[in-house]
Amino acid sequence: MEMSLRSYSHFLEGDVKTTDKLKIDGKFFNSRLILGTALFPNIDVLNKSIETAESEIITTSVRRLGLNQKDFFVDQIKKKFTLLPNTAGCYTKKEAVLTAELARESMNTNWIKLELIGEDEMLLPDPIELYSTCESLIKKKFKIFCYCSDDPMLCKRLEDLGCEVVMPLISPIGSGLGIRNEHNLEIIRSMCKGLIFVDAGIGSPSDACRIMELGFDGVLLNSSVARSHDPINMAEAMSLAVKSGRKSFLSGAIKKTKKAIASTTFKGKISNF
Amino acid sequence: MFKKICIVNGNELKIDEMEFHLDDLVKKILKDKKIKVAVAVNNILVQKSDWKKKKILNGDVIEIVQPFFGG
User: I need a surface site. Which of A49, A128, A196, B54 has the fewest CB within 10 A?
Assistant: First the structure.
């Protein structure tokens, strides 16, 4: 299954194709890298990492207010970003729907990164509960960024249901194992016509680059930057990788062949001897 | 003798006033902090516009949440 701009140009519409901006829910973004804000060693490193990543969208969670709390997340983030709240830690539809509602109320956004976990060792999404929760949240006018497993049919069904962005994992959350089933990713890209990101499992920038080369619309990551030895530099590396992969995809990589194709012409070469 | 006891973010809170509304509770907890929060009472979201009229009852379980770090 060859991935190239020629075969996937239908994903790029009008002005988006010319400027290559990412369009989500009617808003345009230059960056295709969404950065999570958890696990950074300190707030200064987090702020600098968002800067070097050039991310315009950052993820947040919804957590209890400490009754004697002094520092607040929103005050600690230096600049204004588009917030994408998540439902991390939710195991049931009831929990996820209430968390989404609380996120909307506290962050003034209809966007929700829906995480609905089925078990607590691999933190794998529960596809059955997830689908049903999506139905409920769509009725409540949420724009869902749906974290799901890399099952092509599930991704397609979630897209058809009306999820704004479908976001399959490539390996378990925080594992850093990278792409485990590239063929599934190819199938997902060929089946889904809307926005597809990869969320979870990215280990190194080469993973992010490859995902973008496959024609995915963006990458969401957190641990691979925050838990690296140098998050600020790693954030920049991820940003470059996403840009590189995207440019490669748009440029249309050459077809793979089993035999060599000479690059330098034989014409004019001195006689063989 | 307290008039009612409710649970706020997992902590028991004793309330002496007969008429105590959600708006009073949020003000009491936030004090002068300008932070946007969301509130659920007994697992149901209460929108900010309803805080003033939402009376806190004995045994209510209240969650006051905020945006936080997350991936």
Answer: A128
- Distance, in Å, from the CA atom of A108 to the CA atom of B63, rounded to the nearest integer, reads 18
In eight-state DSSP terms, residue A52 is: H
Could you tell me where the beta strands, DSSP code E, fall in chain A?
22-24, 27-29, 33-36, 57-64, 82-85, 111-114, 143-148, 165-168, 195-199, 218-221
Q: What is the pLDDT of residue A95?
A: 97
CB A23, CB A16: distance < 8 Å:
yes
Q: Give the domain ranges of chain A.
A: 5-251
Contacts with B71 from chain A: Cβ below 8 Å: 36-39, 59, 61, 86, 88, 173, 222-223, 226
In a domain, B71, yes or no: no
Annotate A234-248 with DSSP letters as a single string. Answer: HHHHHHHHHHHHHHH
Stretches in chain A below the pLDDT threshold 70: 1-18
Number of cross-chain residue pairs from A and B with Cβ atoms under 8 Å apart: 106
* ipTM (interface pTM): 0.94
Mean pLDDT of B20-41: 92
Structure confidence at residue A11 (pLDDT): 54
- Residue A12 is predicted with a pLDDT of 56
Q: Do the chains contact at A85 and B37, CB–CB below 8 Å? A: no
pLDDT of residue A245: 97
Which tens digit of pLDDT belongs to each residue from A28-56? 999 999 999 999 999 999 999 999 999 99
Do the Cβ atoms of A41 and A17 come closer than 8 Å? no
If we measure between CA atoms, which residue out of A74, A77, A90, A94 comes closest to residue A146? A90
What is the extent of the structural domain holding B22? 4-65
**Residues B69 and A60 sit within 8 Å (Cβ to Cβ):** yes
Model confidence pLDDT, tens digit, residues A137-170? 999 999 999 999 999 999 999 999 999 999 999 9
Q: Is residue B70 part of a domain?
A: no
We report the CATH number of the domain holding residue B49 as 3.10.20.30
Q: What is the CA radius of gyration of chain A?
A: 20
Q: Which residues of chain A are within 8 Å of residue B37 when distances are taken between CB atoms?
A: 65, 106
Q: Identify the three-state secondary structure at position B66.
A: strand
